[in-house]
């Protein structure tokens, strides 16, 4: 989609590829930044890939807390970003890597975004990329 096809909105792609769910203190920032950008009326896509791809599977983010003792889960951060209009994507390669299928994805996940779509988006669109 080009900038003219998305109503003139500027686009932000947030990629979680170095963020590891085994380090939950790393997990709020990407969803917070994405939610803020969406609230500022940017078109925002967030892709979870590599180990971070596990966050798109049911039960994973719901069991993680950024801060010990905090009742807010990582899934709550994901839900808030989604409610602001962030489109959340899983990497198709992660399904095979973790022996999962699309039925295992959380409700907030919009589906799959493969490598070709990512490359086309960041090369063809007027967008910015944040990586975590």
Oligomer: single chain
Give the terminus-to-terminus CA distance.
Answer: 24 Å
CATH superfamily: DsrEFH-like
Report low-confidence residues grouped into runs of 5 or more.
none
Silhouette: globular
- Radius of gyration over all CA atoms, rounded: 14 Å
For the sheet with most strands, the description reads: 5 strands, parallel
- CATH classification, class level: Alpha Beta
β content, as a range? 15-25%
CATH topology: Hypothetical Protein Ychn, Chain: A
- Give the number of domains: 1
The structural class is alpha/beta
Number of strands: 5
Tell me the helix content.
Answer: 25-40%
**SSE order in H/E notation?**
EHEHEHEHE
What is the structure about, briefly put?
29% of the residues lie in helices and 19% in strands.
Topology:
Blueprint lengths: L10 E6 L11 H12 L3 E6 L25 H10 L3 E4 L1 H6 L11 E4 L2 H10 L2 E5 L1
Parallel strand pairs: 1-2, 1-5, 2-3, 3-4
Helix pairs in contact: 1-2
Describe this protein's structure.
- Helices cover 29% and strands 19% of the residues.
- The protein is an alpha/beta fold and 132 residues long.
- The protein has one domain (3-131): DsrEFH-like (Hypothetical Protein Ychn, Chain: A).
- Helix 1 links the parallel strand 1 and strand 2 (43-48).
- The protein is globular, with a radius of gyration of 14 Å.
- The model has no long low-confidence stretch (mean pLDDT 93).
Throw out a few tags for this protein.
five-stranded parallel sheet; Hypothetical Protein Ychn, Chain: A; 132 residues; single chain; 4 helices; globular; alpha/beta
């Amino acid at each position: 989609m080009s900038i003219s096809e998305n109503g003139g909105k500027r686009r932000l792609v947030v990629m979680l590829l170095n963020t590891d769910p085994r380090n939950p203190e790393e997990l709020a920032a990407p969803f917070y930044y994405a939610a803020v950008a969406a609230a500022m009326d940017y078109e925002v896509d967030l892709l979870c890939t590599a180990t971070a791809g596990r966050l798109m599977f049911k039960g994973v983010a719901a069991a993680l807390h950024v801060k010990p003792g905090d009742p807010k889960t990582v899934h709550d951060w994901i839900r808030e970003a989604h409610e602001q209009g962030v489109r959340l994507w899983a990497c198709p390669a992660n399904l095979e890597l973790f022996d999962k299928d699309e039925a295992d994805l959380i409700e907030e996940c919009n589906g799959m975004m493969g490598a070709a779509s990512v490359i086309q988006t960041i090369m063809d669109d007027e967008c910015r990329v944040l990586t975590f």
